[in-house]
Protein: Large ribosomal subunit protein uL4m
Amino acid sequence: MSSALINAIKRLNISVLPQIRFCSSTANQSSAINVINNEFSVTKKEWKFPPSYTKPREVWIENLDTIEEKKVGLFELHPLVYAAAPRIDIIHKNVTWQKKYRWVSWAHTKTRAEVRGGGKKPWPQKGLGRARHGSIRSPLWRGGGVAHGPRSGKTHFYMLDIYSRLHGLTSTLSAKFAQDDLHVVRDLELPTDESEYLIELIEKRNWGPSVLLVDDTDYAPRNITVATDSLQYVNIMPVYGLNVYSMLKHDTLILTQAAAEKIEERILHHLNSTKVVSKFKLSQV
Structure:
């Protein structure tokens, strides 16, 4: 199997291929192929959380320094993160949660104490044969206050459990990868800061009308920051801010190699953690 894969890669005529990693037959080991003068050397790599029943997925590492797409390597993705069974209900639960926790209702009604007028009893309590009333601004009167109406500044914040958030991320990443809307690049370095270069690159590679770029840090290179400043459909996000709503809002998800590794590392850590998660409190640190 390894020789067949190596021969297939040679026929692709890839110019720069610093590292290719593929899964071996063992469950807890994988192989790394280093290319030096068209010679392949296979080395073993230990998995921290090896997949038990499925094989790792592979994706090409692409470049951003040229308009034409060049494959500079193969990158291995953990199947528990990038090849999980998509749960549409969990994705919907995450989207609903993200929409509601930033929704503040500013609808406001006045109570009987805040409306203008009133102050004295409209007629005597007894003797006239009329209904008893103490104020013309009660909710029973036209122009009176509103009972149990909406009050401004009402938040709809609630906290979703950590497992729903984790499986929401894995489901969305897996759906993007299965639909060929997830791409891995070596870094976000561009040769120029002109927006036309990035527009042509996106159009040439069919990355869709909207693109989300994710890096492992919040310090993006200057060229890509300036190039995306005037493009409303291209956004840059650090890896710690990746969420389900942003991934669904954009058609194409572009991860740097470092960001893909960090996403995989953190999600696998929480999925395999035995620590009991305490109930969320607003005052907790």
User: Anything to note?
Assistant: The mean pLDDT is 85. Residues 57 and 77 are 5 Å apart (CA to CA). The radius of gyration is 29 Å. The longest helix spans residues 162-178.
